[in-house]
């Protein structure tokens, strides 16, 4: 959810960053191994400077599942990521999101009641030869829906693997919520465009379905990545001849095809590290990551594909003040993420199937 709920605890006002950092450091020191702070690559430098581990959605899910010694996991990212950590966490561990209003508009595009309507209609048309695969950018309830039906979750790093696993079972696959990640994974696996069709969630209508349809794409998208265009890549190539262009697979197909490579945030970092000194890398993803890469890869030039259209407002919500307030209020439940008990088991099944495949 990207609701704008105000935190019950209040970030301290008027403190300089150095004071906030000092107080965070003292709390981290006091809590020692009882506390782990995770940060997604899209977080600001200030926040990344305070975390124990950074990663893409896959790496952070795997790390969260391994953090058995930590009593508190504080997740600097957005809600679906913290929910995933909470689903994978052991009993006696609590997961906290410093900014309760940090959601993901794409995850909100898959409402559970719309999913039930879609599933009913697809089942009437194709019987039980259907399998749901959900991108982790979705609610716990959507993950549970998929897990209970034998389906799996996936991230941008393993979408192709998970989709191949689902198709290998001889089933049609409903892929949600990101139509672009779903199309990119399916077409990279060698499916023909005619084998894809689209579920329009509003008003609830299947478009382009044929007997040979194998992947049904939900019509969600990321408002940040959907805005990158082929034209952006064309102008990058003409301003920087010989540059390498890499984009996130949440971008539309024509953008991924015009780029040299696509991959998750962790895969983008690996590519930046792999390129020889002197290379120019143009990156189509969230701006905090691109700017950090530009600073860290000093012997290469790293540039944003479209600087003014690259910010994720939800990722930008977390700051030093909200992190400190969350840490100070851990025992009072500041930012505590609660996944409804009835959804935990199904959602965990979907996530564990993904982990086994990865
Ligand atoms: P990654 O898993 O690649 O980090 O992506 C998460 C995300 O939300 C991208 O918009
Ligand atoms: Fe969601 Fe897009 Fe922000 Fe990622 S960048 S958290 S998909 S809105």
Please, could you describe this protein's structure?
With 358 residues, the protein is an alpha/beta fold. It has three domains: 17-102 and 315-340, Rossmann fold (3-Layer(aba) Sandwich), CATH 3.40.50; 107-222, 3-Layer(aba) Sandwich (Rossmann fold), CATH 3.40.50.10800; 225-309, Rossmann fold (3-Layer(aba) Sandwich). Helix content is 42%, strand content 16%. The strands form three sheets. Strands 6-5-7-10-8-9 form a six-stranded mixed beta sheet, with helices on both faces. Strands 2-1-3-4 form a four-stranded parallel beta sheet, sandwiched between helices. Strands 12-11-13-14 form a four-stranded parallel beta sheet, with helices on both faces. Helix 2 (45-48) links the parallel strand 1 and strand 2 (53-55). Helix 3 packs parallel to helix 4 and helix 8 packs across helix 9 (179-188). The longest helix has 17 residues, at 341-357. It is globular. 1,3-dihydroxyacetonephosphate binds next to loops.
Structural class: alpha/beta
The kinds of small molecule bound in this structure are:
1,3-dihydroxyacetonephosphate, iron/sulfur cluster
- Element order: H for helix, E for strand: HEHEHEHEHHEHEHEHEEEHEHEHEHEHH
Largest sheet: 6 strands, mixed
Q: Identify low-pLDDT runs.
A: 1-6
Query: Strands across the major sheet, in which order?
Result: 6-5-7-10-8-9
CATH class of the largest domain: Alpha Beta
Radius of gyration: 20 Å
**How many β-strand stretches?**
14
Report the sheet-strand fraction: 15-25%
CATH topology of the largest domain: Rossmann fold
Count up the domains. 3
- Quick one: CATH superfamily of the largest domain? NadA-like
- Helix share, percent: 40-55%
Q: Judging from the principal axes of the Cα atoms, what is the shape? A: globular
CATH architecture of the largest domain: 3-Layer(aba) Sandwich
